[in-house]
Amino acid sequence: MIENMRNISSKLVSAPRIIIFLIIILSILSPFYPILLIVPIITVGIIYINKVSANKWMYGLFLAVLMSGFWGAYASFPQIPSLFLFRILLAVHIVGFICSKKDFTAIKFLKIPLLCLICWFLYAAIAMIWSADVMLSLSALYFQFEISYLIFICAYYITSWTKLRQVLMWVTWNYIISIGIGLYEALSGKHLRFSAGSLLNYADSRPTGWLVNTNDYASYLVIYFGLASLHLLTSKKKSYQLIWFIMLVAVTFLVIESHSRTGFLGWACIVFLVLFKVLRIQYFLIAVFGGITALFCKVMYSSFASSGETSQLVESFTGKGESTQDRMFIYKFVIQLCQDHHFLGVGLGMTPRYVFDALYGTANIDLSGSQTMAAHNFWLTIISDIGLLGFIPVLIFFLYFVYWAVQGYLKNRSLKAAMPMVILVGFIGISVGSSSIFEMRVIWIALGVGLAIINLLQREKNGEVELIK
């Protein structure tokens, strides 16, 4: 009798029944406490860790960090939008990386740029000493750490062309989905939840994709076009070439729709750089000649600024007089701010506060707002925040990147060697056109991938990685 009762009780408390019971409880409580949804994620993660080696697990987590970086606030708990999946995974990855066995031999060629990132971060932390707002500086320091870590892990984990292909596969399909979202916004006038049009409740058909404002979206489309092209055009599948051509047309439409001047100029340069590598020289010259001829005919035989995409393109460059004046005022003010502080910096993250005060004053201000305004210039912001001394490691990092990007583009005929140059051109446009470049993790992921490709090209030259066409 007792034995029978034990058998019955063991069946009642078997593992499947316990799991089903916990799932039922979780489904009841999760609408009220969405944070509980993290429980099954952690459970699956623990099971996965036990069955997979630490290195493979960390590499898989690296890919998850990159992908969640693209999704931003859209991969967050509905009631806690500031708790991104990206930030959770990044914290888990940092802990895992610290505890795991490390091997830096594959990135020995990148000692200079990586040391520059460390020096930049350390000096920025020191610059908090003379900051007038510690909380503002802490926020800026976090984003600077995020930037440095994203660049580092891209270089650290993308150590072969095979791994680069895997990363590009995920990046490309995320890119295509984002293009689809942008087309939906441009054609319907509706936006996603965290778009500036939805957050600020104003009518604007310009696309934003997964990002907040339209200029950032144009920057994202421009800087990732080259990487998506590398994945599609080097594939053996013929259908990918058709997908690439459709992507080219769609991105051209979206960049024009965004009304972003730096976005369009960067887009034109990047298409030029990609086509020069993809096409034979005679076909490239024919394509350039055909494009110039078509544009000339449009100007001569029709009203260029009458309607459609051409009018929007013209308006992007001629219809932003007030915006241009504000931008020039900000630049002059920031330069004067640097001079007033003897190029020692005003304190990490403090430049947006000074710019806001210069534009709107200090009286009759809505205290519920952020009371900050970006300088719309990455280079000036760094010099203003932490001074010329803090700018030196940033300058060395980009001089290194420029040197090897130009070397790769001129001396290597393959499309993969053109990617650092393409990413660099896109970044230069973003650095003087975006108001939120420090928070745009997708841009720094692209820069990290570019640095990884530079490393792979050097290791390929030394016979350390496999050759690919």
Automatic annotation (TrEMBL):
Entry keywords, A to Z: Membrane, Transmembrane, Transmembrane helix
Membrane topology annotation: Multi-pass membrane protein
Domain O-antigen ligase-related as annotated: residue spans: 247-393
Species of origin: Listeria grandensis FSL F6-0971
InterPro entries: O-antigen_ligase-rel_domated, WaaL-like
Regions crossing the membrane: 12-29, 35-50, 57-77, 83-100, 112-132, 138-158, 167-187, 217-233, 240-256, 262-279, 284-304, 378-403, 415-434, 440-457
One protein family per Pfam: Wzy_C
Entry keyword annotation includes Transmembrane: yes
Subcellular location: Membrane
Name listed for the protein in its UniProt record: O-Antigen polymerase family protein
PANTHER family in the record: TEICHURONIC ACID BIOSYNTHESIS PROTEIN TUAE (PTHR37422)
The organism's place on the tree of life at top rank: Bacteria
GO CC annotations on file: membrane
